[in-house]
Backbone:
């Protein structure tokens, strides 16, 4: 690719807009402009320079800011579509029934929504590719712009050509009465006072402040990329664990995903505020508000050499109360209080009574977590459990069946032995039902006396080793955004000819308002000619000329 | 020219790495949900559980034998159906170095004992009270059967009900040669 | 007088102060050249009254905080009121950078509308559910609201910019959409008017209905029902019966509110048009005739620059930290989260368009208005329509 030789003799790479050395405009377009495009300080944007091979074409596609913006807008629209209906992970239906759920609840629209995969939009391949392309765009566009900009700003010359100066937004030209040296000294003094760094080269001066703010956008892009790579890493096995377990009060369970650890649920606590809804709250249907969901647990760990199933020598790690907003943290894992179910049967008490006299021969307490074969009531009476079904579901071939292992609907086949009935009587007892007596009329029956309940806690087990990466990405992003937003890059060029003619130009990448305050100060202090804002003159005609719709390149520089 | 070539290589590498990363993400998300049980060919997680007679069973003690590892519950109808068939085949294969081990998922001793008595089961039945073996094998649906070869590697995973012929062929599969 | 009464009174004082300040800003614009820098006596008085109002509302905020024991940003009323307060705060900040009195003429009415809107929700103190009991409630919500408020100022500047530059004498798309924005503002007034009127009358009609899951529920309307809930049965009815029954998917009560607001808003709008014999934009145009466009553009851009980092920090980063602590995952694609992301993406696009495509002036002003529209959508529609974890009303 051919080089561009500037009038000053410097050889610039192809695509350069303003000579790297003296600042003369090099393209016809820039020569025509009253105010030059200072976005990348006139450097050649790399993508614009090579456009030969297939790889270059792809590269240039992603390098374009226009493409970047289109990707942002597309992602934005796609993301909004996903909020039209609840996503699948918020829908309480099993995988099989989800399609039917959307069709039932949201009609034809829901059916189409589900069919198009919009109900699981954020994990769809195309949404991920979209975000991936956005990441590629961020990387490529930043590389193409950031590196040349850095080089250009690092190698700035103090002395610029007149044609460069006169094409800046702020220009001043005129005579000063003081000597060249005196004027330069005064300007240097004032600018240093205002914390500019001042460089001088003969009769030329460059005062500069806040150059680092030009790097803000690139820094925040680095942060975003680190963040996105962190998100990607979650898919690598071992980085991310997401399990959930139910633990009943009194139970000790292995923690899924957290090898070698066991959790004992000692107590589940549900507290409510003693608020009474009043006034408008009643109208709006405000209910009594929950105050606290808490599971008091003990965390155990197996000895290092123990195998799964070996629960003999569990070592206690700690006691903790897991509450919402206060997860238990251990060994890179966190356990969260996520859900609960109240009142599952734990123990049932029955009285053995004589049907006619209603006289009790004693009470049996059946611990449903560990029922015994036989309960001796003394004085010759005893109760045997022949069959226990925690979740009775009818008979099959005369055998009582259970639907699950959870005591939702416990039923027992009892054999009652009393001094009066030494051979024993058999009775089938189901909760809330009259007893069945399959072997004929009994003299005794088991009368339900009391029950004990227990609660269940839903605990989420989470490990996310990418969090530190995400955090670093987030911090770098914030630093970059803050630098780019709250600081700006101000420059002032000044040249004094021996005859007292002064040429001054100023540039700021944003916030011209503040720059003008600096300019006012230095102009007054050093008795410089007053400056002109070349864009302000343009703007006065905005209404009358073309309604301001002209597609003009921004003066604001990245 | 040298510089230009270098740039092309650099661009190709950067784009390729990014494309791979995106590809991995899409692939990873698509396959994330399908992880089930332990992987065939991998080392079967060792464990130790106690059976109804108070005897300890440690998987690694059966090295050199094939192991027919069955996860079940009394409420699970297909489990119930295949139990007698398993017991028959246990009788056939126990002298050919194929061990059968039935792991009950956290039920009470009473229920399990009752079940074993009802079907006169002779193979060892252990209870996984804390569900830690179930977790280690990542068992979801019952019944689930894991076949372990004499080297202690997972040879095959079967979820769902099996016929007696199935059971026989599976035991044959892990029989030491 | 208890602390909560004092709190309420302070809010009322703030409201009146903003109202007075708006009028004063109006006066200042007529009187001076309003180009900034040399503010007239009216302008000085206006900003003083604004600051008094702001301090009074800050007093409301602090006293309510002390009374309830948590930052008063936990329900629709509290959050929206705070949002209004932060807009006034952001306006004061920008005012002292640029001394642009014209901003007050739009910023304060917008804040007034937002606070009035807030007042339509239950004002009673409600205790916090467990997931909200965290310091992150204070940190996340206040930072996010602050960011949104600063971003809102760019829309204020944009609206003034457009009021000045859009040619209202001949039909154009821009003229239509500008008037549409004004119409929306009038509809909010309509909502406040109709809601407070019926609430002053203690209007109530109640119905039983069947919701989309098939369970039977009871609902109380505070506006005369236009639409009936799915399979509704009257429990107690006053004034009128629902004209149309809606399917279970649509909340007919909310639809009724929307339609009432549109109805009253449209009537108000027509009345204004009839009396003034001009478009609303045309009524305001003379007031902003002398503002400096370049300064307005700068204000619009600057407020996005100031607000964007604050919004990113509050609505995304702090949100993620809290979500990780409370819900075990930093991001869950909850509608509120998604719309915060959309807002963020939108302003990112805004900055890129401005920086590299040179979208300044009008285009930038329109974008700022759309951005504010997204923020309001996230505040109103996401909470009330797209139910998710963040719905507090």
Residues:
């Amino acid at each position: 690719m051919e080089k561009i030789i500037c009038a000053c003799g410097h050889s610039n790479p192809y695509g350069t807009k303003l000579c790297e050395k003296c600042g003369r405009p090099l393209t016809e377009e820039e020569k025509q402009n009253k105010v030059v495009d200072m976005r990348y300080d006139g450097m050649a944007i790399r993508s614009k320079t090579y456009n030969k091979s297939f790889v270059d074409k792809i590269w240039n596609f992603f390098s374009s800011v226009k493409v970047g913006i289109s990707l942002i807008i597309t992602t934005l629209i796609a993301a909004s579509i996903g909020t039209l209906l609840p996503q699948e992970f918020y829908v309480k239906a099993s995988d099989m029934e989800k399609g039917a759920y959307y069709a039932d609840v949201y009609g034809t629209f829901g059916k189409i929504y589900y069919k198009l995969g919009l109900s699981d939009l954020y994990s769809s391949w195309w949404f991920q590719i979209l975000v991936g392309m956005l990441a590629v765009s961020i990387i490529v566009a930043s590389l193409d712009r950031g590196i040349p900009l850095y080089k250009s700003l690092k190698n700035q010359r103090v002395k610029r050509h007149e044609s460069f100066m006169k094409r800046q937004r702020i220009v001043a030209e005129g005579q000063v009465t003081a000597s060249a040296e005196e004027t330069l000294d005064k300007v240097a003094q004032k600018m240093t006072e205002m914390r500019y760094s001042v460089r001088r080269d003969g009769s030329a001066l460059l005062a500069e402040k806040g150059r680092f703010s030009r790097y803000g956008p690139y820094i925040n892009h680095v942060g975003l990329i680190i963040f996105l790579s962190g998100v990607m890493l979650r898919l690598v096995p071992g980085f991310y664990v997401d399990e959930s377990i139910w633990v009943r009060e009194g139970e000790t369970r292995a923690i899924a995903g957290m090898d070698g650890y066991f959790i004992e649920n000692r107590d589940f606590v549900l507290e409510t505020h003693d608020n009474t809804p009043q006034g408008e709250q009643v109208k709006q249907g405000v209910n009594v508000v929950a105050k606290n969901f808490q599971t008091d647990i003990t965390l155990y760990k197996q000895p290092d050499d123990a195998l799964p199933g070996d629960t003999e020598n569990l070592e206690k790690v700690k006691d903790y109360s897991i509450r919402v907003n206060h997860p238990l943290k251990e060994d890179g894992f966190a356990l969260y209080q996520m859900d609960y179910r109240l009142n599952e049967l734990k123990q049932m008490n029955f009285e053995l009574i004589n049907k006619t006299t209603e006289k009790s021969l004693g009470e049996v307490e059946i611990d449903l977590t560990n029922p015994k074969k036989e309960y001796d009531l003394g004085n010759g009476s005893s109760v045997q459990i022949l069959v226990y079904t925690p979740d009775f579901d009818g008979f099959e071939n005369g055998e009582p069946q259970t639907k699950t292992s959870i005591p939702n609907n416990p039923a027992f086949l009892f054999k009652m032995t009393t001094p009066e009935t030494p051979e024993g009587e058999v009775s089938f007892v189901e909760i809330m039902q009259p007893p069945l007596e399959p072997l004929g009329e009994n003299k005794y029956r088991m009368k339900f006396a009391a029950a004990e309940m227990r609660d269940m806690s839903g605990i989420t087990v989470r490990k996310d080793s990418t969090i530190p990466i995400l955090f670093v990405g987030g911090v770098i992003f914030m630093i970059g955004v803050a630098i780019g937003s709250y600081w700006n890059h101000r420059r002032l060029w000044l040249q004094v000819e021996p005859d007292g003619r002064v040429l001054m130009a100023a540039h700021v990448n944003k916030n011209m308002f503040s720059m003008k305050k600096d300019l006012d100060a230095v102009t007054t202090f050093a008795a410089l000619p007053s400056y002109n804002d070349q864009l302000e003159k343009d703007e006065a005609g905005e209404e009358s000329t073309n309604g301001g719709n002209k597609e003009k390149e921004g003066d604001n520089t990245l | 020219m040298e510089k230009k070539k270098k740039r092309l290589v650099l661009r190709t590498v950067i784009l390729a790495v990014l494309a791979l990363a995106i590809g991995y993400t899409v692939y990873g998300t698509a396959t994330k949900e399908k992880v089930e049980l332990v992987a065939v060919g991998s080392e079967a997680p060792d464990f130790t559980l106690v059976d109804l007679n108070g005897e300890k069973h440690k998987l690694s003690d059966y090295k050199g034998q094939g192991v027919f590892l069955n996860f079940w519950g009394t409420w699970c109808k297909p489990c119930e159906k295949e139990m007698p068939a398993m017991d028959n085949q246990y009788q056939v294969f126990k002298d050919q170095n194929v061990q059968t081990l039935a792991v009950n998922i956290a039920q009470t001793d009473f229920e399990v004992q009752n079940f074993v008595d009802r079907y006169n089961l002779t193979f060892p039945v252990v209870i996984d009270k804390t569900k830690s073996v179930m977790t280690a094998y990542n068992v979801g649906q019952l019944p689930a059967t894991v076949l372990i070869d004499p080297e202690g590697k997972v040879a095959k995973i079967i979820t769902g009900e099996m016929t007696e012929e199935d059971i026989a062929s599976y035991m044959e599969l892990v029989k030491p040669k | 007088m208890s602390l909560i009464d004092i709190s309420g009174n302070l809010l009322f004082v703030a409201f009146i102060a903003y109202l007075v300040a708006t009028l004063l800003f109006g006066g200042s614009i007529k009187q001076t050249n309003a180009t900034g820098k040399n503010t007239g006596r009216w302008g000085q008085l206006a900003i003083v009254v604004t600051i008094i109002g702001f301090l009074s509302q800050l007093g409301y905020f602090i006293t309510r905080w002390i009374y309830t024991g948590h930052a008063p940003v936990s329900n629709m009323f509290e959050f929206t009121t705070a949002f209004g307060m932060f807009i006034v705060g952001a306006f004061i900040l920008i005012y002292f950078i640029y001394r642009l009195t014209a901003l007050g003429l739009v910023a304060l009415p917008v804040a007034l509308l937002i606070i009035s809107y807030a007042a339509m929700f239950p004002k009673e103190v409600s205790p916090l559910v467990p997931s909200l009991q965290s310091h992150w409630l204070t940190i996340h919500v206040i930072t996010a609201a602050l960011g949104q408020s600063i971003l809102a100022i760019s829309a204020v500047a944009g609206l003034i910019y457009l009021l000045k530059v859009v040619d209202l004498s001949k039909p154009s798309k821009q003229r239509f959409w500008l008037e549409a924005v004004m119409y929306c503002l009038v509809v909010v007034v309509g909502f406040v008017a109709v809601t407070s009127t019926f609430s002053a009358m203690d209007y109530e009609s109640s119905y039983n209905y069947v919701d989309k899951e098939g369970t039977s529920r009871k609902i109380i309307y505070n506006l005369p029902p236009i639409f009936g809930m799915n399979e509704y049965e009257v429990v107690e009815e006053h004034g009128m019966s629902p004209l149309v029954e809606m399917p279970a998917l649509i909340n007919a009560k909310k639809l009724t509110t929307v339609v009432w607001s549109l109805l009253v808003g449209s009537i108000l709008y027509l009345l204004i048009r009839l009396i003034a014999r001009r478009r609303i934009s045309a009524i305001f145009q003379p007031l902003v005739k002398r503002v400096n466009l370049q300064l307005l553009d700068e204000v619009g851009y600057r407020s996005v620059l100031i607000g964007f980092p604050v919004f990113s920090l509050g609505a995304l980063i702090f949100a993620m930290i809290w979500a990780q602590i409370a819900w075990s995952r930093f991001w869950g694609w909850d509608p509120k989260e998604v719309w915060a992301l959309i807002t963020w993406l939108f302003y990112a696009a805004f900055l890129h368009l401005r920086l590299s495509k040179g979208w300044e002036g009008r285009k930038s002003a329109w974008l700022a208005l759309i951005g504010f529209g997204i923020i309001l959508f996230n505040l109103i529609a996401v909470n009330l329509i797209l139910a998710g974890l963040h719905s507090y009303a």
